[in-house]
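I am going through a labmate's work and have reached the protein record below. What it holds is a sequence and that sequence's fold in token form. Please read both lines and tell me whether the tokens look consistent with the sequence. Do not assume that whoever made the record got everything right. Thanks in advance; the entry in question is below.
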Amino acid sequence: MSWIVLILVGALCGWLASMIMKTDAQQGAVANILIGIVGAVLAQWLFGSLLNIGGAEAAGSGFSFWSIIWGVVGSVVLIALLKALKILR
């Protein structure tokens, strides 16, 4: 059951981040899921562990308001990195 929640939250975070960064037309559902999951892990590591920003530990921890917010923030950072590396346009 946790894998289903992980995929759903990853898809939601990835889709919201792709809408914010205007890359939704070039990304499919699988890319949104992967970017959402990796973005949530990135947010948890970067903002929670490295910078000690309160609440960022919730990223990737399940289906809650804060996990979705931090997952979207991490996904936006990941899409920005992918755009800077010319992987996404």
Q: What stands out?
A: Residues 2-84 form one domain. The mean pLDDT is 83. The chain has one domain: 2-84.
